[in-house]
């Protein structure tokens, strides 16, 4: 199966998934946030992982939906916590309805994610639910760490990598792992799929941090420099704070503590500091490292070479994205 | 086993249950809300239900904890939605920490409730998780209906009963059912346990509505008349609005639309309207009906009579509570 064929099957599966009807205030927000789209990269990786080991990749469809529903549940609740007005260019659930409805429809989405996993073959059910629950708790841990970082003066690179591993990467790891499990993969290959997902996921998040500053405005979906304007503790800022000395450090701290400033001027100034400190090259090297680790994990998997090629080709396209 | 012995075992189980450690802001609120106590009626009913069918009631301990953790998760999130300052006389989680921490630690509590169910024997795992997920979604539906009722002019008795069935009773139903399932009960008995829990649960909620007005202030844990002061659409108010005519109706509507009033005067006046309309007797009759249905469900269960007596005696004590 080609990635496009799997994406079509996934699209049909999402359209057929019933989330619930009444009361409408509880279930409409689920359909709304699921309809906003997104790249659906995680569930597609679930199907690609399953396709490595079986022609019956359809058995991974519901687990793939579970991953995407869970991901959207976290977006829904994170948007309340961040008081974000927009998600994918549309009003967030707490803006379109209200915060109480957003809390409660998020809660029921988490239940619906679990429900999508219950048709898994009994042999794999406990294993998958144990792994999913651990992943879900870790994603919450990562979100809490991210919130904690906002009020810290300094965050180390190791702490930052640990936070993004939990908040964003373990879910890609689980997405790939569960595809392998339900397809009957051997334990070593299953572990490799998980590790690959985590490493590629960390690479993605670091690339997101990089594109915020160095992305092509025509390709990058968000405002370039948004993280800089908001003083967001990204990989770039954390490294800059660790490396900057003397006058450069004073200039950086000065920008970070200004409450009124010209946005374009701040973005230019901090980008220039990053340039002087070699932060771009450092980030690019780290991203390349994590992607390389992820691909090494994939190489380790015992599966038909032609099938592996489909996954590897797709993963290479993914990591080269500019948005 | 006596109910006291089971309650002791349950207490030890709660003390041994690990909820997680780091970050502390995520997991401390779970230990905090679990430490506030409460009657722990639901998990005790899980153990009593299991004891009907097996000496190995210990296998129901983790499912019992799952029920209580889930119940406390709903309290935690409901308190945010209701902006409640106190829970069991102590600051609510969103007051003691903040709303974001309350949302996120609630989310992880729901995951932890599922985790407590994963050690169930594989034969019963899918059944229990399917029933738990359905119950969890229904509790959210009931909470949403309750919020919707606040902005409605009229609510029918049937709509009200349906709301409390979902918001509070199905969880007692599941608590008893899961005890039966893991103890290997036959499907008819399992269904009877569920139905008994739902019926007794509805009776409890109606009794709560009644005690708010007619409870002994020395025994009732909350402020008598609190629902009246807040215009809460309880069974009593819904019935009064359905029955009041002429001058009595005008007086009732007048009290409901006053924005400034003497609290004691309002409680006295509306209680007097309830008295005139026979609302107390009506509520008592409905409560007796639901309890009777619940006990009839219990009678239907196929189990050793001596063991059934333990459950029936305990349930009789519960339904006669005054707080």
UniProtKB/TrEMBL annotation, chains A, B:
Gene3D superfamilies: Farnesyl Diphosphate Synthase. The keyword DNA-binding does not apply. Its cofactor is Mg(2+). The keyword Isomerase does not apply. Keywords: Magnesium, Metal-binding, Transferase. Pfam families: polyprenyl_synt. InterPro entries: Isoprenoid_synthase_dom_sf, Polyprenyl_synt, Polyprenyl_synt_CS. Belongs to the FPP/GGPP synthase family. This is Polyprenyl synthetase family protein.
């Amino acid at each position: 199966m080609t990635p496009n064929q799997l994406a079509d099957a996934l699209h049909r599966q999402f359209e057929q998934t019933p989330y619930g009807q009444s009361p409408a205030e509880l279930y409409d927000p689920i359909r709304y946030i699921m309809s906003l789209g997104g790249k659906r990269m995680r569930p597609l990786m679930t199907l690609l992982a399953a396709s490595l080991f079986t022609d019956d990749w359809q058995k991974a469809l519901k687990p793939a939906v579970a991953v995407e529903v869970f991901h959207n549940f976290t977006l829904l609740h994170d948007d309340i916590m961040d008081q974000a007005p927009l998600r994918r260019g549309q009003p967030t659930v707490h803006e379109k309805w209200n915060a109480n409805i957003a809390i409660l429809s998020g809660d029921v989405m988490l239940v619906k994610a679990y429900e999508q996993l219950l048709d898994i073959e009994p042999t794999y059910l406990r294993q998958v639910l144990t792994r999913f629950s651990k992943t879900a708790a870790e994603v919450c841990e990562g979100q809490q760490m991210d919130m904690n970082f906002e009020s810290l003066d300094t965050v180390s690179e190791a702490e930052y990598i640990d936070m993004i591993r939990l908040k964003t990467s373990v879910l890609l790891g689980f997405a790939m792992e569960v595809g392998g499990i339900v397809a009957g993969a051997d334990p070593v290959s299953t572990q490799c799929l998980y590790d690959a997902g985590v490493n590629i996921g960390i690479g993605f998040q670091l690339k997101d941090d990089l594109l915020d500053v160095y992305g092509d405005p025509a390709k990058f979906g968000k405002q370039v420099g948004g993280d800089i304007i908001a003083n967001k503790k990204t990989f770039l800022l954390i490294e800059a704070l660790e490396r900057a000395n003397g006058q450069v450090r004073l200039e950086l701290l000065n920008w970070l503590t200004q409450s009124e400033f010209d946005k374009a001027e701040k973005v230019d100034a901090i980008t220039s500091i990053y340039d002087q400190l070699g932060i771009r090259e450092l980030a690019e090297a780290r991203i390349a490292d994590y992607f390389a680790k992820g691909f090494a994990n994939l190489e380790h998997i015992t599966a038909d070479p032609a099938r592996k090629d489909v996954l590897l080709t797709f993963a290479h396209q993914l990591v080269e994205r500019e948005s």
